[in-house]
Amino acid sequence: MAEVKRRIILLSGLSGAGKTTATKSLEDVGFRTIDNVPHELLAALVEKIAEDPQRFARVCLVIDSRDGDPRPTVEAVRSAAAARGIESRLIFLDSRDDVLMRRYSETRHRHPLGGEEGAPRSVAQSIEEERTLLAETRELADVQIDTSDMSGRELRDRLVVEAVGGEDRIAIRVISFGFKHGLPLEADLVFDVRAAANPHWVPTLRPLDGRDAAIRDFVLADPAGAGLNAAIADYLSATLDGYLADGRSRLTIAIGCTGGRHRSVVIAEAIATQLKEHLATRPAVTGDAASAVIVEHRDLGRV
Predict the structure, then answer these.
(1) Range of 284's domain?
(2) DSSP of 196-214, one letter per residue?
(3) What is the pLDDT of residues 109-128, one digit of tens each?
């Protein structure tokens, strides 16, 4: 039997963003999850984990805002793990404020930062405070996942890829989205393509989406659409190696139009194709360059 690579997943993020679903998903693929341990005990826990590789081959430590700013704890745990030759990855779960508020309304759970009985805070105030507390931890994350529009199954599949998949392979996500539905929270780069001609105003094209050839031809035949596509491609070609050389193996590129159905989809698909071609020429890319680029159309099914 092949030896399981030892790994500690540090799971953090906003309350209500899906950490409970995430821990159950990781348990399904062999991780032992440890939650609600005081921050000051977690670095010492790594020593115990290191001493027993059979019991603790794969571990998920949940580090959230219940004990205050988790950044010092995250850094201490990662340092302790590295000193013992154990890989660690920090996954941060995020979600839009309106989605978090809806989830709390539906479940009627109390927010962990909801204040004392005599001085309660609203859910909105609690979310704002928690975002501030977690801001630096979010910036440390190896992976940021926006769960706003994800089903439980989609979150599980994404987590398995991030927690179990290899870190040595470049992975680039190109996401199309609609500005009216909000920015993708995990985006490293955001491009606005709303200046391109809009198929929405052509009655015969309106029912189609950006994956259809007629929409693609319409958008890319427009001088503004073609110019935006070329400008984004040129920028990425000039800067991609720098982004990936900056210690990151993952890059999320978001391309937005008004509704996320036509223009952004066309240009996201075009950019993904050009990125695959670019990566195929890079000697540093391991594996199949085509599989290193993932395209997602976040808002295709939304009105």
Answers:
(1) 171-297
(2) S--GGGSTTTTTS-TTSHH
(3) 888 888 666 567 788 999 99
